[in-house]
C-alpha cells in the first residue's frame, strides 16, 4: 500500500507546508510592523517628553534654566521629523537670548510647543500608518488563508476522488456481481493498491462466471438426464408445485391426463393425495384399495411423495403404477381357484363319504392295517376339504359374492362364543385361557364370520404357545369402534414376516404347522368386509405375539 500512502502523505505534507508558509509570512509582517512602531515611538516620544520638560522648566518659578538648557540640547540630538531641526535651532537661539536677558520666555515656550505638536502629529501619522498596515496585513492574511483553504479543499478533493471514486465504482460493480451479473469488469489502469484491487476483482468475476457456467452446464445436463429418465418410464409421472399446479408430465402422464402445464390437477383423487402429502410432509402410499385409481379403463396404484426444503414445501411427485394387467391376472387366479375349489370339492366330498362308509363296515369288517390306512386317508381328505372350503370362502369374500350379514351384536357375546368353542383345544394343549375386559358395546357384525375369525386367531395362538403358556382375549371400547386383541406368550413372529403374515399360504419358518396358511388371509378379508382393520404385533421370536382387529360400533353409520 506504499503508492496510495505516498499520495496521501504528499497531499498532507503540501497542506502542512502551505499553512506553515502562511504562518511565517504573518509572523514576519507583524514583527516588521512592531519594529516600525517601536522606532517611531522611541524618537517621537523622546522629543515630546523633552519639549514638555522644557516648557515645564520655563514656566516654573523660579525658572529652571539648566534643566531647560539640557532638554534643548538633547532635542538637538534627536531630530526625526522634517522641519524639526530649524525649529530646534530657533528654540536654542531664543533660549540663548533669554539667558542673556534679551529674549522672551513665552516665545521660547511657543517654539517648544511647536516642536511638541510636530512630534505628536508624527506619532498620529505613525499610528494611522500602523493601523493601515495592520488592516492590510489582516486582509492579506485572510486572503492567503482563504486561498490556502480553497487550495487545501481542491487538493483534498482530488486525493479523495483519486482514492474513493474507484472504490465507489468497485462497490457498484460488486453489487452487480452480487445480483448475478458476472460479466461486470472495472476498467482502471492504476499501479497502486486500488489498481491491484480492481484487477483482483476482475479476476474473481471471471472465475465466478466460469464456475457459474460450469454449474449451469451440469444443471442442464442433470435436468436433461432427469427428463430423459422420466420420459423413458412406462408409468405416468406427474410433478406439481406447492400450489398443486402441474409443472412436468412425462409422455405417459400427458396421454393419460391431457392437461396443460400450469393448471391444477383435474382428477379429484390425485389432487386430494397431493394436498395430503404437502400438508403432512410424508409419502402417501396406502396399502389398501384406497390407493387404486381408475383412469381411462386402466387401474393405477397411487404413490405421492412431497418435495420440500428445510423450511417450505416445493411440490410433489405422483407416480401411477399401472396394475391393470396384475389385476387381470389376480382376477383370473381368483376365478381359477374358485372354479378349481368348487370342482374339486364334489369329488373330495364323495371320497370322504366313501371313506366314512368303509370305516362304518359298509363293505365288511376292516383289518387293523386297513383301518389305519383308511383313517390316514380320511384325515387327508378332511384337511383337503377344509382347504377347499376356505379357498371358496376367501374368493367369495374378495369378489363380494358373500358379503357379511350385519346386525347389532354385543362384542362380549362374540368373544364368549369363540372362547366356549376353543376351551377343549386349549385344555388339551395345556394352555391357559385368560379373559381381559370384554365390553358390552354393540358392533355391526356377522356373528358366524366373526366367530370364525376369533376361533381362527385363538386356535393359532394356542398352537404356537408352549404348554404352560397363556392366551388372552379382550375387547375394549373406543369412541367409534371396538378393538379386539388376541395375545399369547408363545413363539412370536420374526419382524420381517409381520407385514406378510396375512398373505395367502404364508407360513413362518420354524412355526408349528396347523394348516395351509389361509386362516389369517380369510380373517383379514372378513374383518375388512366389516369395515375394520387387522394387524399383527410381536417383539420378536420367543417374545409372544398379538393380533388386533377393530369393528365399527353401531353408532357409526351403517353402510
UniProtKB/TrEMBL annotation:
Enzyme nomenclature, EC number: 2.7.13.3
Keywords: ATP-binding, Coiled coil, Kinase, Membrane, Nucleotide-binding, Phosphoprotein, Transferase, Transmembrane, Transmembrane helix, Two-component regulatory system
Enzyme class: transferase
Residue span(s) of domain HAMP: 161-213
Domain annotation PAS: ranges: 222-258
Alphabetical list of InterPro entries matching this protein: BphY/WalK/GraS-like, HAMP_dom, HATPase_C_sf, HATPase_dom, His_kinase_dom, HisK_dim/P_dom, HisK_dim/P_sf, PAS
Pfam families found in the cross-reference section: HAMP, HATPase_c, HisKA, PAS_4
Gene Ontology CC terms: membrane
UniProt GO MF annotations: ATP binding; phosphorelay response regulator activity; phosphorelay sensor kinase activity; protein kinase activator activity
Subcellular location: Membrane
Membrane spanning residue stretches: 12-31
Topological relation to the membrane, as annotated: Multi-pass membrane protein
Record-annotated Histidine kinase domain positions: 339-555
Catalytic reactions of this protein: ATP + protein L-histidine = ADP + protein N-phospho-L-histidine
Coiled-coil boundaries: 205-232
GO BP, sorted A to Z: osmosensory signaling via phosphorelay pathway
Protein name, per record: histidine kinase
Amino acid at each position: 500500500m506504499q503508492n496510495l500512502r505516498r499520495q496521501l502523505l504528499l497531499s498532507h505534507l503540501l497542506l502542512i507546508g502551505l499553512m506553515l508558509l502562511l504562518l511565517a509570512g504573518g509572523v514576519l509582517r507583524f514583527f516588521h510592523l512592531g519594529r516600525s512602531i517601536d522606532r517611531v515611538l522611541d524618537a517621537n516620544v523622546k522629543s515630546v517628553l523633552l519639549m514638555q520638560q522644557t516648557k515645564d522648566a520655563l514656566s516654573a518659578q523660579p525658572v529652571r534654566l539648566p534643566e531647560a538648557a539640557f532638554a534643548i540640547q538633547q532635542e538637538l540630538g534627536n531630530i526625526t521629523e522634517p522641519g524639526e531641526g530649524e525649529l530646534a535651532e530657533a528654540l536654542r537661539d531664543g533660549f540663548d537670548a533669554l539667558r542673556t536677558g534679551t529674549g522672551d520666555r513665552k516665545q521660547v515656550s511657543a517654539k517648544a510647543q511647536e516642536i511638541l505638536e510636530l512630534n505628536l502629529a508624527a506619532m498620529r501619522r505613525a499610528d494611522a500608518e500602523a493601523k493601515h498596515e495592520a488592516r492590510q496585513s489582516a486582509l492579506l492574511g485572510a486572503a492567503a488563508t482563504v486561498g490556502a483553504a480553497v487550495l487545501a479543499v481542491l487538493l483534498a478533493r482530488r486525493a479523495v476522488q483519486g482514492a474513493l471514486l474507484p472504490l465507489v465504482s468497485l462497490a457498484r460493480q460488486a453489487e452487480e456481481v452480487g445480483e448475478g451479473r458476472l460479466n461486470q469488469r472495472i476498467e482502471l489502469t492504476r499501479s497502486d493498491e486500488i489498481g491491484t484491487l480492481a484487477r483482483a476483482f476482475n479476476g474473481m468475476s471471471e472465475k465466478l462466471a466460469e464456475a457459474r457456467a460450469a454449474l449451469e452446464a451440469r444443471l442442464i445436463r442433470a435436468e436433461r438426464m432427469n427428463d430423459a429418465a422420466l420420459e423413458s418410464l412406462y408409468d405416468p409421472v406427474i410433478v406439481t408445485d406447492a400450489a398443486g399446479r402441474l409443472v412436468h408430465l412425462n409422455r405417459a402422464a400427458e396421454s393419460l391426463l391431457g392437461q396443460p402445464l400450469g393448471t391444477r390437477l383435474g382428477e379429484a383423487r390425485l389432487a386430494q393425495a397431493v394436498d395430503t402429502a404437502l400438508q403432512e410432509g410424508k409419502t402417501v402410499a396406502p396399502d389398501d384399495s384406497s390407493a387404486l385409481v381408475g383412469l381411462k379403463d386402466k387401474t393405477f396404484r397411487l404413490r405421492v411423495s412431497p418435495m420440500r426444503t428445510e423450511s417450505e414445501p416445493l411440490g410433489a411427485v405422483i407416480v401411477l403404477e399401472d396394475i391393470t394387467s396384475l389385476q387381470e391376472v389376480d382376477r383370473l387366479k381368483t376365478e381359477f381357484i374358485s372354479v378349481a375349489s368348487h370342482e374339486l370339492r364334489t369329488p373330495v366330498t364323495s371320497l370322504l363319504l366313501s371313506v366314512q362308509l368303509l370305516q362304518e363296515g359298509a363293505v365288511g369288517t376292516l383289518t387293523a392295517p386297513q383301518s389305519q390306512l383308511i383313517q390316514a386317508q380320511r384325515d387327508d381328505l378332511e384337511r383337503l376339504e377344509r382347504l377347499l372350503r376356505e379357498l371358496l370362502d376367501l374368493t367369495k369374500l374378495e369378489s363380494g359374492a358373500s358379503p357379511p350379514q350385519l346386525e347389532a351384536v354385543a362384542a362380549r357375546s362374540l368373544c364368549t362364543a369363540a372362547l366356549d368353542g376353543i376351551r377343549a383345544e386349549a385344555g388339551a394343549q395345556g394352555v391357559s385361557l385368560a379373559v381381559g375386559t370384554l365390553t358390552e358395546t354393540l358392533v355391526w357384525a356377522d356373528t358366524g364370520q366373526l366367530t370364525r375369525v376369533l376361533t381362527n386367531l385363538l386356535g393359532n395362538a394356542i398352537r404356537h404357545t408352549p404348554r404352560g403358556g397363556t392366551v388372552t382375549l379382550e375387547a375394549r371400547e373406543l369412541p367409534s369402534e371396538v378393538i379386539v386383541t388376541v395375545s399369547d406368550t408363545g413363539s412370536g413372529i420374526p419382524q420381517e414376516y409381520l407385514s406378510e403374515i396375512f398373505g395367502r399360504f404364508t407360513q413362518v419358518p420354524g412355526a408349528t404347522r396347523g394348516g395351509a396358511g389361509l386362516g389369517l388371509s380369510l380373517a383379514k378379508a372378513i374383518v375388512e368386509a366389516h369395515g375394520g382393520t387387522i394387524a399383527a404385533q410381536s417383539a420378536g421370536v420367543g417374545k409372544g405375539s398379538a393380533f388386533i382387529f377393530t369393528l365399527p360400533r353401531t353408532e357409526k353409520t351403517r353402510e
